[in-house]
Amino acid sequence: MRDLRKKILLESGKTVSKKARSRPESTRGSAAGSPAPSRGGSRATSRYASEEEDISDSEYDDSIDSSSVLNSDDGEDNVTASWTDRLQDRITEILDRKRSSAKGRETSLNAYAHLIRYHYAAEQVENHWGELIPALLRSIRGGANYEETVAALKALTLTILSTQSETVYDQVWSSLKGACENSDEESVKVEAIDAMGVATMCGGGSVEAAEDVLDFLLEIVESDGHNVEAPDNGRVVAAALTTWGFVASHLEDLQAQSEQALEAFTEQLDSTDVAVQIAAGTNIALIFEAAREYEEGEGGEEADGTAGGNGGSLTSWNLQYDQHRLVQRMTALVRESSKAVSKKDRKQLHASFNSVLTSLERGKGPGYSTARRQASNPHTGGSRVDFNDGEFREYGYRERIRVHNISMLVDTWSLSTRVELLRSVLGGGLAAHYLENPAVRDLLSSAQVQLVSAPRKGGDEYTSSPKKSRGPKAGRSVAGL
């Protein structure tokens, strides 16, 4: 009787916890498998963790790292295979295409992507590199349905980010471009655009290749998605804007792209899609930041936060652009109170464009607060004389991301665009990859880092200083950045 009851429980799946059953890899390729967790929220909307928050979803991470347990009738715990064993099983399923169904491949791909999102798996992936990339490309080019194609694109993006191949860009570029142009599905186009950015900057793309990618993405923005058969599609245009910023953040000189790009991004400020507006504003700030850095590198002088100090014209780039017109337009967006925009979207829009306005007017990075506070306070150790003198200082940069006891200050638009795309691709797995993945650490290497558990000296000292260089000079490979 006891054996019969145990058999019934095992067949029903009731001995597996609800949390374990919800994980993609727990389905082991069954037709009823759950898809990988979708990305939450708007793609282009930045949201940095406060100093009290961790960037990763700790509860969800715990469910990934902790093994599932089957409670037997005798009270014994049978621990499931380790994540490396489960990953090996998923890789085997992906490579064994002849014995798989479309639904089975989709589930295996989602489970594989889920595992390498939350674990740094370079060794396991590289052991099958020669077979794995072609298998993923077969599902991208000839997936039986769009769900399989989307799953393969996510898997490919994470695979490239988990390794530092200097040749994969040449292998995958034409397939990614074809998927973006030829698919009828919005989600396929969005995932293909993400993959383009990661493949270019982490897969061996040259500076020339990066510039070609920027041109392709700019065409999507200028045509409102029409050139990839996605007319007026906000998600696709926002993805193109976000990935444009990610790729552009690695180039040391954006002169060739700046004028045409600024025109396109300024037009998108009038979009009815808030994510598009925010991404366009971010890229505008990125271009002006690059111009300021170029001026400083060439020995130019900065005045009133404007490159060249000539009221908004970026003369060293031969770029005559009316910064005053941009400021007026963004000021209007900050005051936007249309009932057609939700309260949450209005809040995000206002916060983002306040940040961009401060950047344009004062030459600051993202999230700089001009609010003033008392420079010293007798209640927290400051002298009463100082307090009475009425000295104030600005709060300054307030945006940080947190990985365990590491706090990274986001004080440049270049860094902000990288964080945005990494959070889009890795989600809650960003913490694990930052700690273990050299490619991700390189992408965020310009961040000022503070160990929050260490005693502060005035609260403003960091363990490392940001790098001044935006990226490689022309002709150098950008692989591994």
From TrEMBL:
Chain segments carrying region Disordered: 1-81, 360-387, 454-481
Listed Acidic residues bias regions: 51-64
Domain of life: Eukaryota
InterPro entries according to UniProt: ARM-like (IPR011989), ARM-type_fold (IPR016024), IFRD (IPR039777), Interferon-rel_develop_reg_N (IPR007701)
One Pfam family hit: IFRD
Chain intervals with Polar residues compositional bias: 371-380
Interferon-related developmental regulator N-terminal domain ranges (all copies): 66-361
Similarity remark: Belongs to the IFRD family.
Record-given protein name: Interferon-related developmental regulator N-terminal domain-containing protein
